[in-house]
Amino acid sequence: MSEFLLKPRIRFGQDALTVLNELPARSVLLVTDQAMVKFGLAGRVMQMLQPRGIALQVWDDVVADPDIATVVRGMKLMDNSYPDTVIALGGGSVIDAAKAVIFALAKTRPDAQRQRPCFVAIPTTSGTGSEVTAFSVVKAHAEKLVLVDPSLLPDIAILDPALVASVPPAITADTGMDVLCHALEAYVSRAASDFSDALAEKTVQQVFRYLPTCWRSGDNLLAREKMHNASCMAGMAFTNASLGITHSLAHALGGVFRVPHGRANALLMAEVVAWNADYQGECDTEAARKYARLAHLLDLPAQTPRQGVTSLLVAIRALKDEMAMPDGIRDTGIKATDFEHQLPEMVGQALRDSCTPTNPRTPDAQGLIDIYRRAWIG
Ligand code: NAD
Question: Which protein residue's CA is at the shortest distance from atom 4 of ligand 1?
């Protein structure tokens, strides 16, 4: 028997943010970051809450890739005010920080008088799908740890495309490739199901169709809405089916060298697809057949698994090129000697990453070193 968990309630589409007018809150902690302040998005949310007499506390300096110190800071803030509602407004970093704070407070202060706050997630990037996942990624020193617990799932997710319009092209590309990676990894995961497959297939089609438009014309709200929904659908797929070694390798690369999460996935994705498909060998794996099915859905040549995998690899590389993304890890400013020096550490982290067990092909250290070295060149 298997399970497919569906949570939270999702409000989506243009003006979805207005659902905040109906929020039955008396006290709110707004978790956000400086970009949200700069682009006026935090102000918009505050203007909706303040006239209703809701007590509002704002934590607006969450940093990208939150670490344990960030979570501890948030715990102190929330412990003081104990709000009935937490609103996370931002990218995956902000949502993950809020998740970790709520989770850690519930674990360390199990006070029966205190109810778990209502948790509202408002993503402002189309990337992580964190608004619908039971995961939170927190950095400890140079390692990204993935917290996994159903209690991390928000209660309400608000997907308003207008909130993504200000994302600059480079971050649109990074986060959009993260969406593609979530769908690809959930699709070939050992824990994939009919349900996650359906979500992943739709996601892949929408990413190839709409991501380049979002990158070129950030204010195209139709394309933004399609990518925002795709990000959420991919989140629903991978919170159930889990992920694979692109993510394990990307977590380690991001933890050690601070490469943004989506960019790290983009740099590794094609090499992992080729490795999972056994592209250098027979190219006759279950993963190869599923990649070919995706190529077929994209109307690309896919008469055989090898032809389908070739088509998909070409399409992934073309999508990266179209958005002027770096070809290989070597194009991100990391020194070759530093990269080689850190390979054993990164491979160790990737092998123990919680995304590794569901990868369709079981990796060993040498396999991961080979993938990193190929992705170095790109
Ligand atoms: P991010 O949240 O780190 O944001 C990237 C940058 O974009 C930040 O500087 C941010 O301020 C800015 N930004 C966000 N929204 C903006 C907007 N509307 N306009 C202008 N700038 C904006 O990036 P992300 O890719 O969304 O999240 C990455 C983090 O999420 C990583 O730590 C990653 O490991 C984690 N992650 C979590 C999950 C999960 O399920 N919880 C899944 C994948 C990744």
Answer: 91
